[in-house]
Amino acid sequence: MELLEKVKKVAESTTLEDLEMTKAPLLDYLANAGCLRPMRSIRDKDLLVHDIVMFQVHFKGLKTLGVLEKILRHPDSFRPLFCYEPSTLTADQVDDVFSIWLSPEGSNNRAAEERVVTFWRDYLQDAEEEEGPSKLQQILSFATGASVLPPIGFSPTPSVQFIQKEDDDFSCTPMFPLANTCIKLPLHVSYQEFKEKFDFTLGNSYGFGRA
Q1: Together in a domain, 97 and 197
Q2: Domain boundary among 82, 117, 133
Q3: 208 domain-assigned
Q4: In DSSP terms, which residues pair with 210 in a beta bridge?
Q5: pTM of the shown model
Q6: Are residues 183 and 111 in the same domain?
Q7: Are residues 70 and 149 both part of a single domain?
Q8: How many Cα atoms within 13 Å fall on the side-chain side of residue 204?
Q9: InterPro entries, from UniProt (predicted)?
Q10: Residues 119-151, buried b or exposed e (16+ Cβ, 10 A)?
Q11: Which residues are catalytically annotated?
């Protein structure tokens, strides 16, 4: 109850001076809780109250229930609850990472792009079935620079875009996937050609998006 009264005074502060005065009796507590933050404006009181509540509920609450001692005694048993561990990568997970950027409906490129989207998804499924997570990690690494899915996702969201003929003159050169914050797929007309070019790109890639 004594702590509650002190925290209420912090929450009811209306000026920075009031906030500093109401914080003063809590300095030892805040130092012990790791919540000793500088107050630069009256708005900082909300952050301070949040820190106190989080410490009191999570740390003190767990200690009161005896849970903290059990966590310290059996850390491996509790690790999955508190620590992120990458799961085995699947084709569907890799597909979900990317947003597909298609040309407007009715445009000349739309049908060709939709065909290549099918190739892209078939390629991911084949990679999973033929070589498993290691091949999917290669694809993800080539496209994003990361071989595992980050726990909070990618920002910005990776995208699948397409290499249009007007982007460059590919008439005399093989068309390979490119990657630079997004993955760009050539508009192949057959899945076999798409797969061969993608496999060659992965096998000769020297880092993120470089072949």
Answers
A1: yes
A2: 82
A3: no
A4: 207
A5: 0.59
A6: yes
A7: no
A8: 10
A9: HECT_dom, Hect_E3_ubiquitin_ligase
A10: bbbebbeebbeeeebebbbbbbbbbbeebebee
A11: 182
